[in-house]
Specification:
Layout lengths: L1 E6 L8 E6 L2 E5 L8 H9 L10 E3 L5 H4 L2 H6 L6 E3 L1 H31 L11 H9 L1 E3 L6 E4 L2 E7 L7 E9 L2 E7 L22 E5 L13 H15 L2 E5 L5 H14 L8 E3 L2 H12 L6 H8 L10 E3 L3 H9 L4 E5 L9 H8 L6 E4 L8 H6 L5 E3 L2 E3 L4 E4 L9 H9 L7 E5 L3 H13 L4 E3 L6 E3 L1
Parallel strand pairs: 3-4, 4-5, 5-6, 10-11, 11-20, 12-15, 12-16, 13-14, 13-15, 16-19, 20-21
Antiparallel strand pairs: 1-2, 1-22, 2-3, 7-8, 8-9, 9-10, 17-18
The protein binds zinc ion.
Length: 463
């Protein structure tokens, strides 16, 4: 058997690995590489293998850095099935469409400049028809519902506890009379995260391809989001102002709604109107509601008492633009949860433009803010900031909550890998920068695993 690492090698995006066994070519994930525009353009358009020669693709979860280049794969001639869990397929159905919109918008922007300079125009990476063709190829398998993607290979999904539907992929491979177990972790979640289950251990593993995003660090304790929300709600009620929460549409928005619902159930939340002002967050919340079988015990207990975790008095979703515009005329107190999570686009920009200059308002950042984003500028207290090309003075209070990451830290990853058992012969650390990768590889060897590698892009291993 051969494993080829085509993406998320020494970097955290573009997850893509290929297993060659018994004449079969299996692709694990087909994620979008997200980086500098020129490099991303090249990498996402040019596969370092023949897409038509892939027999099947197995998708760990819906995040775009794992699923976002599937439409390109189909466009480039891939004919096989794409296996994923039911929740992953439902999330992909709108996340990939959203990604096609972004691809189109980006290419329009680039082409404007190229036209001025008399250069040939680019095509978008993929279009809606490619997404539709890709979605038709998706075949769903629930956790533990084993299936065969080809001769001598049995595949089983287990809950990775990262986002709704996220799976670790176990391949039981029969080759030359021997059976070996290869596990691809996808992204590993954290213990005790709300709504979804903890990562489910996999045993008797021979080889593992593991993520290593936080392989060199320990997360700070998960700050109590409920306590913070309660305190901030109190402040905006007193001042009749706004609490603006830029949040990722999938995962983080639902985490906040879940906390607000709990506060409500406990009678601790002042009756403040809450608006989810993001079409994608609205659809994602519906998907979370459609897949209650994936909830953890606590969330199931809420449901059994007739309490729906994403529904409480005064919670409203505003899918259309008109309803969104109405929000700007409303008087406080009110809470607006909107995307994008790093304030790089989406309706949150309108709310920030309107609200950032008011000293009674609060802007709460519940997620990581990457360098050079508006979100990062705000948490670094830059003043003024530019929104829609205009300068805005920042007077609102800026608050951030730490420790809500959806990824396991070093301790969590080592616990997950440690549970794989004494047979584990070799680990491949992917989905990480070089330092966390090497640190995690060293710690894996300290666990007693004979070999741990941090593959570079397009490196191959025969095992
Ligand atoms: Zn992920």
């Amino acid at each position: 058997m051969k494993i080829h690492f085509h993406g998320a090698a020494h970097t955290v995006t573009g997850s893509m690995h290929r297993v060659e066994v018994n004449g079969l070519n299996l692709l694990l994930d087909c994620g979008l590489f997200q980086g500098k525009r020129k490099e991303a353009f090249q990498r996402n358009r040019n596969f370092s293998f023949d897409p038509a020669a892939i027999d099947a693709c197995i998708l760990s979860h819906a995040h775009i850095d794992h699923s976002g280049n599937l439409p390109s794969l189909v466009k480039a001639g891939f004919k096989g099935p794409i296996y994923a869990t039911p929740a992953t397929i439902e999330l992909c159905s709108f996340m990939l469409k959203d990604s096609a919109h972004i691809q189109n918008r980006d290419v329009l922007y680039v082409n404007k400049r190229r036209k001025r300079q008399g250069q040939t125009l680019h095509e978008p990476l993929y279009e809606m028809k490619d997404v539709e063709a890709c979605l038709k190829k998706m075949k769903s398998h629930r956790y533990h519902d084993s299936f065969s993607p080809g001769p001598g290979v049995t595949c089983t999904f287990t809950d990775a506890g990262h986002i709704l539907g996220s799976a670790a992929v176990t391949l039981d491979i029969e080759e030359n009379g021997a059976t070996r177990r290869l596990v691809f972790t996808g992204d590993v979640g954290r213990e005790d995260a709300p709504i979804i289950n903890d990562p489910e251990p996999v045993h008797d593993v021979d080889f593992v391809i593991t993520e290593g995003t936080y392989g060199d660090r320990l997360h700070p304790a998960m700050q109590d989001i409920k306590t913070k929300l309660k305190e901030l709600c109190g402040a905006i009620v007193d001042k009749k102002s706004r609490l603006l929460i830029p949040a990722f549409a999938v995962g983080r928005t639902q985490q906040i709604l879940y906390a607000l619902n709990e506060l409500h159930a406990e009678g601790k939340l002042c009756p403040v109107p809450v608006f989810v002002d993001s079409p994608m967050a609205t659809t994602a919340t519906e998907t979370y509601e459609n897949h209650a079988q994936n909830y953890d015990q606590e969330a199931l207990e809420y449901l059994s008492k007739g309490d729906y975790p994403f529904s409480f008095p005064k919670l409203r979703f505003t899918p259309d633009v008109e309803a969104s515009k109405e929000l700007s005329k409303m008087k406080g107190p009110l809470i607006i949860i909107s995307a994008s999570g790093m304030c790089e686009g989406g309706r949150i920009l309108h709310h920030l433009a309107q609200g950032v200059g008011n000293r009674d308002n609060i802007i709460l950042f519940p997620g990581f803010q990457a360098q050079h984003t508006l979100g990062r500028q705000l948490i670094e207290k830059r003043n003024p900031v530019r929104i829609f090309g205009e300068e805005f003075a920042v007077r609102a209070q800026i608050v951030s909550i730490r420790g809500l990451s959806a990824h396991a830290d070093q301790k969590g990853l080592l616990k997950y890998i440690g549970a794989m058992g004494k047979k584990l012969k070799q680990a491949f650390v992917v989905h990480c920068e070089p330092h966390p990768g090497r640190t995690l590889a060293r710690e894996i060897v300290n666990l007693g695993v004979p070999k741990a590698e941090v593959p570079t892009r397009n490196q191959s291993f025969t095992i």
